[in-house]
Design a protein that fits this description.
By secondary structure, this protein is an alpha/beta fold. The chain contains 15 helices and 14 strands.
């Protein structure tokens, strides 16, 4: 068979386009934090991970502008060779302090951070154990690792124990979980995971992409939320959510960071974060540390929306965070619901099987500190209207 035959045979997306239900790759022509313009239509954005609303903060924009003037538009090389700026090192020092770890290492994307950390550490004879609903970057990192990969049912501690009991060989062991799961909005049970990790002599890595800036008194994530900052070995974070930029980092013991500097292929063979992105993260970190009221507003908005959706009769699953899924049912119904909602001026993200269980397709909504009461009122009214039209609620 011709290698390209599968491409010709793939017609699902084109069929959705033909029917007018295709929801992806929508081109945003203007963005004003909680509102966007798509094809001339202004919409309320409830599909962003911009939790603290920092993408348009004046200090963030000015920091990016100044960095471009001083350093230029890009580094044109990897961290390993010519692509390390003093800004990268300043950011790593700041992040290590913020996360209460010995050291941190900055990657070009959050995706590469998980790939580079897991594949860089888990070698032949080692084991990596992950939650079945972990992010795709963790899954791909486990695929790339030369060690053996085992999975346990989502947040199921008994299944995690059974999985760990299967390992009867010597070798390093790494448990990797999301802190906040991006499609469900629930939180990993870290206290119990840590207990099992100690019992079975495992290291623990937490992907805090959706947790940093959101959870914890200081906003440093899931470990702080549970009071386990000294018990989690590695914490991964991304800059494309609360930090309003792009990139990622891993924080942990200094010897581990030093090892990854010299053994992580995604770090060594990728161009480094551009200066404006690094400066953006530093400015965002300043705001996270100095403006805790932003996090308070974020949680007020999140709690209100979860409460209001449930009062209307929508199923929001097990969410505990500003990620609030609205479960619709079938893939077809979800796409149709999305289209009408989109036409009504609300941008949400449709998530369908196999990314989620069959007949549990949903619209993933997420909230910002900067959403206004009137904007949230508008979103609720449109969901109420469309939900009744489709018979999802009465």
């Amino acid at each position: 068979m011709d290698l390209f035959q599968k491409c010709t045979n793939y017609t699902a997306a084109r069929e959705a386009l033909r029917l007018g239900y295709y929801p992806y790759f929508q081109p945003i022509s203007e963005s004003a934090d909680t509102e966007v313009v798509i094809r001339g239509r202004r919409m309320i954005m409830v599909g962003s991970n911009n939790y603290l609303g920092l993408t348009h903060h004046p200090k963030v924009i000015e920091a990016a502008r100044e960095a471009i003037v001083r350093y230029g538009s890009g580094c044109t090389g990897s961290r390993f060779l010519n692509g390390t700026l003093d800004l990268h090192e300043v950011l790593e020092e700041r992040l290590a302090k913020f996360m209460k770890k010995e050291a941190a290492l900055v990657f070009s994307t959050g995706y590469q951070t998980n790939l580079g950390t897991i594949a860089g550490l888990v070698g032949r004879g080692d084991f990596v154990i992950s939650d079945k609903l972990d992010h795709a970057s963790i899954v791909d990192g486990c695929h790339l690792a030369f060690g053996e990969w085992l999975r346990f049912k989502h947040n199921d501690l008994e299944d995690l124990r059974k999985t760990l009991e299967k390992i009867d060989e010597e070798g390093g062991r790494l448990i990797v979980v999301d802190g906040v799961f991006s499609m469900e909005g629930d939180i990993a049970p870290l206290p119990d995971i840590v207990k099992l990790a100690r019992e079975f002599e495992c290291r623990v890595m937490v992907d805090d992409a959706h947790s940093i800036g959101v959870l914890g008194k200081r906003g440093s994530g899931t470990a702080e939320h549970f009071g386990l900052e000294d018990s989690i070995d590695l914490v991964m974070g991304t800059f494309s959510k609360s930090f309003a930029s792009i990139g990622g980092f891993i924080a942990g013991p200094e010897p581990v960071m030093h090892y990854l500097k010299h053994n992580s292929r995604p770090l060594i063979f990728s161009a480094s974060m551009p200066p404006a992105s690094v400066a953006t993260v530093l400015a965002a970190l300043d705001i996270i540390e100095s403006e805790p009221e932003r996090r308070e507003r974020l949680w007020a908005n999140a709690r209100r929306m979860t409460k209001e959706f449930r009062a209307l009769g929508f199923d929001t699953g097990v969410t505990e965070t500003p990620i609030v899924p609205v479960i619709i049912g079938s893939n077809e119904m979800t796409f149709k619901f999305w289209k009408v909602l989109f036409e009504e001026g609300v941008f949400a993200n449709p998530v369908v099987s196999p990314a989620v269980p069959e007949n549990a397709s949903r619209l993933r909504t997420s909230y910002m500190a900067t959403h206004t009461e009137s904007q949230l009122d508008f979103v609720l009214e449109k969901f109420r209207k469309v939900g009744r039209e489709f018979g999802i609620i009465s």
